Amino acid sequence: MGTAFPGEDGRGVNDISRNRVMLVDDHPMWIEALSEDLSEEGFEIVAVAKNGTECLQRARATRPDVVVMDLQIPAPDGATCTELLVQEFPDIQVLVMSASGEREDVLRAMKSGARGYLVKSASKAELLEGVRRTAAGDAVFTPGLAGLVLGEFRRMVNVAHSHDDDGPVLTTREVEVLRQVAKGLAYREIAEALFVSHRTVQNHVQNVLRKLQLHNRVELTLYAIDQGLHDPNE
Asked: Which end of the chain is more exposed for a tag (fewer CB within 10 A), N or C?
């Protein structure tokens, strides 16, 4: 099974509400097989797309919970689509499934905001479990890639804070929001848990990103784990 940074564990697909999936790949046979397998597991396939233009149009029309994204699709490519989707719909979880396990491809996908990265050579069970865990809010990686991503993240944080001896100062509320983001909760779920508005949560997240000089929710999750702010048993 791929490595998963903890989100909300212990929830099967039948126990989660985020099970609406869009598949983005320009290989029809792959799309057909994965669609059938996910449907059998209880996921609803709300859209498929074979290129970047279709991806953006159909995501806006169907608002999926999870997007399974290939990187090598006709322009705009998978990493670009991921970045645009995450900016427009922060609660969408993007799981990259690619034939490539190259360092540059993995890091570009993660910096674009993908929640996880699995290589297509993984077993059927691993791919299905990856989608399930992504829907539950976990950051999922093919074995060997998690260390690469976390190592690069730590390097980025060290460079960003090399001139700040005291490190960034977060408010108590910002730390609370950060903990909830690390659990994989959507903004609306965080708002309900903290009894604040959806807009307030978005503002707190943007403030935390700015203070930490990070770019997306995945990097926030990695930061929370690295700093010991995430308790998987909560």
From this structure: C
